[in-house]
Amino acid sequence: MTLADQENQTQNQNQNQDQNKDQNQAPPETPEKKSRRKFIVIAVLILLVIGGGLFYWHSTFSEDTDDAQVDGDLYEVSSRVTGQVVKVYVQDNQTVQAGQAIADIDPKDYQVAFDQAQANLASAEADYEQAHVNVPITSVTSSTSISTSGSDVTASSAAVAQAEKQKEAADARVVQAKANALKAQLDVERYTPLVQKDVISKQQYDQAVATANADTAAVLGSQADVIASQEAVRQAQQKVAQSRFQAQQAAKNGPQQVKAQEAKAQSMLASVKQAQAKLEQARLNLGYCHIIAPVAGIVSKKNVDVGVNVSIGQDLLTVVPVTNLWVTANFKETQLDKMQVGQEVKLEVDALGGRKFSGKVTQVGGATGSRLSLFPPENATGNYVKVVQRIPVRIDFTNLDKENGDFKLRPGFSVTPIVTVKQ
User: Fold this and answer.
1) Domain with CATH 1.10.287 in the chain
2) Count of CB atoms within 10 A of residue 374's CB?
3) Which residues pair with 28 in a beta bridge?
4) How do the residues of the chain divide into helix, strand and coil, expressed in percent and rounded to 5?
5) Which helix (H) or strand (E) is 396 found in, with range?
6) CA dist 355 to 54, 225, 322, 352, Å?
């Protein structure tokens, strides 16, 4: 191809490109297209304004966080007695009601202990009744002893007086006997010369001598009576002293004996109460053999089967309630400026497809989560980096019975709470 042919071909290609540009050039816009374009621009501007307003309202009039979850009380059901499980009534993930049977522990040993406690209580009550009845008996016996002792003192004093009178009488008889003996002796002395002169008969003289001897013997007998009377007075005085001592002891020991009997009755009463306490403990232990659900909920973490030997405090299962629930939301500290107790909250649950629940703020935590952790940070050591802290906030459901009628809400579900901090 010659150079001239190449130039002609190039000119033809340029001409074809110019023709194609003229053919592809858009026709002039009509007024309808201009109006539609203007409407679209205005709509976009309106949407931007609305979006900005919503963003401003959301950021100014409410606070939200995605660090929140449903909370609830988890009830660990454990054994309160030791024994072998003989029956289990529930399975994992089963719904139970409050008071529903969960398991039974063999009650034979605890039934024997209960019967023994009943027998011990009956014995203690009998001992107390006997001691209680003996209190008035001891009181009456003590009073009688005091009265008798007083009477003995009076009688002994009277006996002393009588013995003293008898001694006086014996003394008088001694004096009389001595006088008689003296008279008889004088008669013998007078009769002696007379009998020698045969003035009087020998018989009269012998009678006088016999009378003198008898009166002398009477003096000795009267003196012996005086000695006996003195001994009787001494014995009566000793009896008076003994009676007075017994009266003093009765007056002193009588109330003490009553107090001792009352103390014994009180001790028996304490034994009765102790036996009652042991009986009540035996009754409780027997009742603990039948394990029931503390609340209504769902059985989880079941760890008990028939034949297993359980001990006191051993966890058997967990009951998760589905009615007493709340939300724990961990808000940033910068979000708490206008947050107060009682503010309304909208709650969105992720697991239920964003189902909305209503609630209110009931508590604001007393410390940040990091401060309450097992190993709180020590900012005074090492390099310090400021980290926005989070505070746990409790949010209670306000209409849970109606909004959770199907009981699908579970502890641990993630929640997005939106707190209205401005009305």
Assistant:
1) 109-285
2) 4
3) none
4) 55, 20, 25
5) strand 390-397
6) 21, 127, 16, 5
In tens digits, the chain (423 residues) has pLDDT values of 454 455 556 555 655 555 554 444 445 556 666 677 777 778 888 888 887 766 665 556 788 899 999 999 899 999 999 999 999 999 999 999 999 999 999 999 999 999 999 999 999 988 888 877 777 766 666 666 556 655 656 666 666 667 667 667 767 766 776 777 677 677 667 767 766 766 667 777 667 677 767 767 776 776 677 677 777 767 766 776 676 666 666 666 556 666 777 788 788 889 999 999 999 999 999 999 999 999 999 999 999 999 999 999 999 999 999 888 999 999 999 988 889 999 999 999 989 888 999 999 999 998 988 888 888 887 777 777 888 999 999 999 998 888 888 888 999 999 999 998 876
**109-285 CATH fold:** Helix Hairpins (1.10.287)
Q: What pTM, to 2 d.p., does this model score? A: 0.58
Q: Which of 67, 62, 72, 74 is nearest to 415 (CA)?
A: 67
Please state, in angstroms and rounded to a whole number, the distance separating the CA atoms of residues 259 and 312: 45
Distance CA 249, CA 106 (A): 61
DSSP of 116-137, one letter per residue? HHHHHHHHHHHHHHHHHHHHHH
Backbone angles phi, psi at 300, to 5 degrees: -140, 155
Residue ranges of the chain that CATH labels 2.40.30.170: 63-106+298-420
CATH fold label, 63-106+298-420: Elongation Factor Tu (Ef-tu); domain 3 (2.40.30)
User: Phi and psi at residue 329, in whole multiples of 5°?
Assistant: -110, 130
Closest by CA position to 285, among listed 73, 52, 117, 70: 117
Backbone φ, ψ for residue 221 (5° rounding): -65, -40
If DSSP codes are grouped into helix, strand and coil, which group holds residue 11? helix
Say how far apart CA 99 and CA 323 lie, in whole Å.
16
Residue where the block lists tokens 């001691």: 131
Two structure tokens written together for 101: 């049977």
Where are any strands of DSSP class E within 185-324?
290-292, 297-300, 309-310, 315-320
